[in-house]
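Support request from a user on the community tier.

User writes: "When I paste my structure tokens into the form, the page sometimes reloads and wipes my input. The last time it worked, I copied everything first. Here is what I submitted, just in case something in the input itself triggers the reload:"
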């Protein structure tokens, strides 16, 4: 992917060589068994229109030095990935089809897109100081090209990037209207289990009923929700130059933030609440400094999974976007950013998220007007241009570092370095490899990010852009 002048990623050091990737092959991996005729049309769910991002993506990096699978050469590994993917696609049959329109997938068994790429450096060279924009070259789709037929038509897109040392980066980049991050996690685990010779990563298997459940719970007939989502969530989008930075919070730092986030209004914050609340606080402080000391009202939009909030609860194999948005507000424009503010922010986040309970989800399912009114309420919170909006999604419980294809667990899991003309004030949270820390990928406007990353309070709790190879020692 060529860089875009509208967005960049700060790099602490200049690289000695430019990373290049070369496509070796591209093919379609067909499912190992045919899809029955009565399952040839798969319906998308209504909530697939809620998320505005075109893709859900992830890249998992694997060392060639792992003791597990060390006897396997690269060619054997790639052939195993193809064979196991074919087996996995027979269970997740819509992924071997094509996106027909905004409502359906044509399950024609045409195959998932599979790209093999060679990288002109070693894995350790890249991970010493990863360039987050170059990271996008490991993806099988052009992230900014929302309307490219080659990228959007296929329901599933995979890419295996082979480094000179034999290390690998395995990535997937699928249309977000088809599924969310929770399903992406389940898919990766099932694929890995098949590669290791097992039938399922969870001891169960996906049924057609599991896959179709989101569309049955939230059927779609037109695009009214997408239009409303654009108006509602558009407040998180900005024009101009943006920066994506990584902030690593160690286990002890998170425990300290949980203690600081405890107060009269907040008891026992979770690690995700503590970290996201702290980043919200620091982002507001940076915005205040940018505005010459003027504190702006702020809204924090947290995407919440609702798989377990339906009655009955839906399987992790449910193929759809089972997400809703919780909106926390900070209207206080007078007080300083003090230690006492963190418990208030965390409590406000918990209050907003707690509203999305089983009763609320039941209402969404049965009352279209509740969906409209809820989004209209969210729209009112951020429609004023004088309000700062931030979005957040946590992948901390997805278990990406447990995805083992037979040659060990990933040494690092990457997301996306944004370089589009429009960007979001957005935070992605990931658990670290040992599970005790959190890595936050934060995208903000360039000027606000310059102020944020120099915040001494933030730096006292987080390491900025750490080398993934050294992250374990920092936790």
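"...and here is what came back when it finally went through:"
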């Amino acid at each position: 992917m060529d860089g875009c002048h509208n967005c960049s990623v700060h790099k602490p050091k200049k690289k000695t060589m430019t990373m290049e990737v070369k496509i070796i092959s591209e093919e379609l991996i067909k499912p190992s068994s045919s899809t029955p005729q009565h399952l040839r049309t798969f319906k998308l769910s209504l909530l697939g229109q809620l998320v505005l991002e075109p893709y859900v993506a992830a890249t998992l990096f694997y060392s060639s030095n792992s003791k597990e699978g060390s006897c396997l050469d690269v060619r054997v590994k790639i052939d195993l990935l193809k064979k196991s993917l074919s087996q996995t696609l027979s269970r997740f049959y819509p992924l071997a089809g094509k996106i027909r329109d905004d409502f359906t997938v044509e399950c024609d068994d045409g195959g998932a897109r599979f790209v093999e790429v060679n990288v002109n450096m070693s894995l350790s060279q890249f991970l010493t100081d990863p360039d987050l924009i170059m990271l996008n070259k490991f993806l099988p789709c052009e992230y900014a090209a929302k309307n490219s037929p080659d990228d959007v038509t296929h329901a599933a897109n995979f890419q295996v990037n082979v480094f000179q040392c034999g290390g690998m980066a395995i990535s997937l980049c699928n249309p977000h209207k088809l599924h969310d991050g929770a399903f992406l996690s389940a898919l990766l685990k099932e694929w890995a289990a098949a590669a290791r010779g097992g039938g399922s990563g969870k001891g169960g298997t996906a049924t057609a009923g599991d896959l179709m459940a989101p569309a049955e719970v939230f059927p779609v007939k037109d695009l009214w929700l997408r239009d409303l989502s654009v108006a509602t969530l558009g407040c998180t989008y900005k024009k101009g130059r943006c920066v994506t930075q990584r902030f690593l919070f160690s286990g002890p730092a998170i425990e300290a933030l949980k203690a600081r986030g405890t107060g009269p209004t907040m008891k026992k914050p979770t690690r995700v609440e503590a970290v996201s609340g702290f980043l919200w606080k620091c982002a507001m402080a940076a915005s205040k400094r940018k505005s010459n000391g003027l504190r702006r009202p702020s809204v924090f939009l947290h995407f919440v999974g609702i798989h377990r909030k339906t009655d009955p609860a839906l399987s992790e194999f449910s193929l759809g976007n089972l997400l809703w948005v919780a909106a926390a507000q900070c209207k206080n424009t007078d007080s300083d950013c003090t230690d006492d503010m963190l418990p208030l922010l965390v409590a406000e986040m918990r209050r907003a998220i707690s509203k999305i309970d089983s009763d609320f989800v039941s209402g969404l399912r049965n009352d279209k007007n509740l969906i409209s009114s809820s989004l209209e309420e969210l729209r009112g919170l951020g429609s004023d241009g004088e309000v700062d909006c931030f979005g957040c999604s946590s992948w901390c419980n997805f278990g990406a570092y447990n995805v083992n294809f037979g040659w060990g667990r990933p040494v690092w899991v990457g997301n996306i370095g944004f370089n589009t003309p429009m960007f979001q004030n957005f935070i992605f949270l990931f658990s670290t490899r040992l599970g005790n820390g959190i890595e936050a990928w934060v995208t903000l406007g360039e000027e606000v990010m310059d102020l944020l990353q120099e915040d001494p309070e933030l730096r006292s709790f987080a390491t900025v852009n750490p080398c993934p190879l050294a992250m374990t020692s920092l936790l």
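Agent notes: The reload is a front-end session timeout and is unrelated to the input. Residues 271-290 form the longest helix (20 residues). The chain has two domains: 21-217, 224-474. Escalated to web team.
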